[in-house]
Amino acid sequence: SLYVSEYFSQSAQKLSFYSWYGNAKLFHFHVPEDTVLLRWLLQASRGKGPECTSMEITVHFRHGAPPVINPLGTRFPANATVRPSYNISITLSSAVQNTTFVNVTTPAAGDWFIAAHLPEAAGRIEVKGFSTPCPYMFQADMFVLRLTDMPVLEPGVPMPHTVVSPAKPLHVKVFVPKHAAGMRFQLRSCVTSEQRPCTVRVLLGSITLPQSFQRILTCTGNTNCSLALDSPPWEKWLQITVESLGTANASVSVEMLASFTVCRPGSTSSFLSFISLNQSHAGARPAAAGSSALSAGEASGNTSDQRSSCLQSQPVVREDLDVVSVRYRLLNGPSVPVSSLSPTLLLLNLNTGMDSGGSLVVNLLLNKTSVSLANATVVACVSAASPVLSLNATRNCSTAFSQGYPLSVSTSSVEAMLIVLYPQTDDWFLSLQLLCPQGQGDCTSAEAKVTVFAYLTPCFNDCGPYGQCSLLRRHGYLYAACSCKAGWGGWSCTDDTKAQSIGAQNLATLLLTLSNVMFLPAIAVAVYRYYLVEASVYTYTMFFSTFYHACDQPGVAVMCIMDYDTLQYCDFLGSVVSIWVTILCMARLKKILKYVLFVLGTLLIAMSLQLDRRGVWNMMGPCLFALVIMVTAWVHHGAKRRHCYPSSWKRWVFYLLPGITLAFIAISVYAFMETNENYYYTHSIWHVLVACSVAFLLPPRDKHKKPWAWSQKLTCRYQICQNDREELYAVT
Length: 732
Hints:
By secondary structure, the protein is an alpha+beta fold. One of its GO terms (cellular component) is plasma membrane.
């Protein structure tokens, strides 16, 4: 046998602390066919600074779709089925780097996903630039060992083969045809080279994570051994591995045989059903001449046709709506007939490779009037790769290599819903069959009508009123996740364990908005002291800060008067410009110079905020530059007057020192005390402290100006005119 090794790598990603699925870093790989060994090389590293501490990285694996994880232990939606992901932990302690290998023998071909993240986020709101977070990097590489000439086992044809040694297992594959109801594998004529009892182990199927349904068959002696599989995966290659359990130097000769039981579908899936794609479903449609196809009503009523077929397939149209958004439409109407003779089958195509990043929703609604037997139950099963064709026998919703998702409706419970989170890339099937109680009426002639609604959505229920559905991207792969707010959690933001009440949401909105009213004293002081430009800036800041926080609320108490991004930009701009004009006003510059600096500084601040709104130097830079100007001006004034400036001790004790103290406390609260839980009152304290500090720091008015002197200047033109008249009268 010829083996070929291949290597696949992706760039490293910086890990984040986990608060929602968007914090998990996703890696997407494709495993080729005939792979016999898969090895993951996981490399984790951290920075060397003092802020870097020991950290545990969690890595999740899944075949076919991104892993469904729940690090926070929150609740999933009521009708969602969740199977835990396979995960490992990588610890970064004293070592700066950690390398881990994960091996998977005979892995399933197709898409494989890895998700990595750090522990739960602390919830602290860090100002960009005040602290340097430790970088934790993670990179995943994939090695595969592929067999280039894997022998093909033809159905119904015995194939002799030899297992050379226990160290070299035999790999063969067989193709499973469509509509295969069962498969029977036989191993016979087992002979060893040393004429000893033959002992071999046969592995059927490939390994998938988080759950693997690989079937194991152990054969001992010369007797024939066999294994029967129900519902093998349709139109796929099934890998078979034969391992010798004998001595190291002994070879084993075996003969393998695979046979299939094929299911003949009913006539409702014939070409005639597709003729009605754009036609009305009302009334009966005549069958084509010479054709054995029947309409939906005739097919459901033809008992002989149902007896001769093992399933009744209903035609389904896949309608792509948007990214990760698909609707399935039944050609014969939303209601499908379900009988007890054979299951009704619907194909839900999810094999494009871009459908696994959403949620598959299946809703069943039973028409009570269509059920002829009172206690009859319609059982259903949603499964991938192959349908379940024996619902009436075992009621076990499982196929040869996977476990499906069961559903049921009856006259006592007419509706059922199933939510499959991140469904794996494959053909999905919905099987329905009617089950009747024993000894109650003629079940063969009974029938039920079930309305089926099936669709693929990025986020179930659009994450509800307390969540936001975000479309995430990793290279060319798109997937969706919910970002919850107002204390809500869970996959679809349905977990209200830590949710804020409506009263708490209203209180948070009122605190964050009404705390801006504290700018009114600063505005009044500025107007009283004839600082009209500064008062205009404070009014602008108060207005946009109020309505930005009214729009920024996570709950239902939200009011947006304009676009959120515009409100945020105006709020940040007003805050920084308010600090800029206040410090320059304290510098006591000449008016022309002061107003030039006002305009020039505002333009530069607007530019810097457009580049990075949350950068700490967007606020600290203008503040420090304005402080340099103020200190320089004060030194100049002091040297010119030959004494300290400001000269009045009352100005220092009752105005400057309280204002500076309030400003430092505000900066400390803003930079070091805000968290997601206390944001609404710590940020409100920031509003109050900043507004009060501005009122204290504004310098007194010029001595030659009287209070409200600007109102007397409004009559200046009238006085001039009156004087001119008197002067002219005196001349004449």
